[in-house]
Design a protein that fits this description.
The chain is mainly alpha-helical. It is built from three helices and no strands. The chain has helices spanning about 5-15, 20-45, 55-60. Keywords: Membrane, Transmembrane, Transmembrane helix.
């Protein structure tokens, strides 16, 4: 860490300046997780006992 915190100020200003893009990226990632877990649940619930519930598929997705 530098003494004056310039690096942290720069990082904070970049996060603040691009907050909408970061929120959009997190939101899209969350939707992909939900959708892919649902598809895995539908595909594997009969064949694989590991995915017996949708929550198991969500855990697999994470």
């Amino acid at each position: 860490m530098d003494r004056r915190g310039g690096t942290w100020k720069l990082l904070g200003s970049v996060v603040y300046a691009h907050s909408k893009e970061l929120i959009t990226a997190w939101y899209i990632g969350f939707l992909i997780l939900i959708f892919s877990s649902f598809l895995v649940y539908l595909a594997e619930k009969e064949a694989n006992s590991q995915f017996s519930t949708y929550a198991d598929s969500l855990w697999w997705g994470t």
